[in-house]
Amino acid sequence: MLKLAPSILSADFSKLLEDVRKVEEAGCDLLHIDVMDGHFVPNITIGPLIAQSLKGKTNMPFDVHLMIENPDQYIPEFVKAGADIISVHSEACTHLHRTIQLIKQHGAKACVALNPATPLSVLEYVLEDLDMVLLMTVNPGFGGQKFIEATLQKIEALKKMIDDRGLSIDIQVDGGIKPDNIDLVTKAGANVIVAGSAIFNSDDIPKTVELMRKNATI
Ligand SMILES: O=C(CO)[C@H](O)[C@H](O)COP(=O)(O)O
Ligand SMILES: [Fe+2]
């Protein structure tokens, strides 16, 4: 099933709740919350307090993308703040299996995110434990970057890996996705689509969301 996950990184933080309601009214499925620590990625964004302040004010589940070092330290806090899905970067986890179990023990859905240059082989022994895999289609750290075409092959390969094992795991893509390339990523096998600048910087959010759904091949 296609799920659209607008990234609040491109929202107007001075009227965040208003922007969140706009994307919910436009029919988006998940709220993608980008957490950056200035270490794992060069940018600093938001922490659990902001997530918590939005909880209960929208019905969209919270899809929390942790771009931070030592994610284990913060997972309990983000679940308390309302995270429904937590993504951790394989590159930031020394004990990836343990971190995945920690997310699940706290009652959230577990997702592993991979940078564009990270091979799918890191998923070999943990894939069965996951609810979702997030393939970055830009290098993490900033919104509004250009989609990296080479990730299309990787999406296809992940889809095959999941199907070959008879699993049912969502494939999320994040970075540079717009109405004019959503067909490529959905055709390759992605079904959870993050879009920040394409949605929040649009003059007509409902129209852009509708166009993304129309152009998706699923
Ligand atoms: O994780 C991210 C960046 O690290 C963001 O989710 C992503 O960049 C979304 O923004 P855009 O759609 O504008 O590329
Ligand atoms: Fe993200």
3D structure, described in words:
It is a single chain. With 218 residues, this protein is of the alpha/beta class. The chain has a single domain (3-215), classed as Alpha-Beta Barrel (TIM Barrel), CATH 3.20.20.70. The protein contains eight helices and eight strands; from the N terminus they run βαβαβαβαββαβαβαα. It has helices at 16-25, 48-54, 75-80, 96-105, 151-164, 182-188, 197-200, 205-215; strands at residues 3-6, 31-36, 62-67, 83-89, 109-114, 132-136, 170-174, 192-195. It has an eight-stranded parallel beta sheet. Strand 2 (31-36), helix 2 (48-54) and strand 3 (62-67) form a beta-alpha-beta unit. The longest helix has 14 residues, at 151-164. It is globular and about 45 Å long. 43% of the residues are buried. The chain binds ribulose-5-phosphate and fe (ii) ion. This is Ribulose-phosphate 3-epimerase. Catalyzes the reversible epimerization of D-ribulose 5-phosphate to D-xylulose 5-phosphate. Its EC number is 5.1.3.1. Its cofactor is a divalent metal cation; Zn(2+); Co(2+); Fe(2+). A divalent metal cation binds at residues 32, 34, 65, 174.
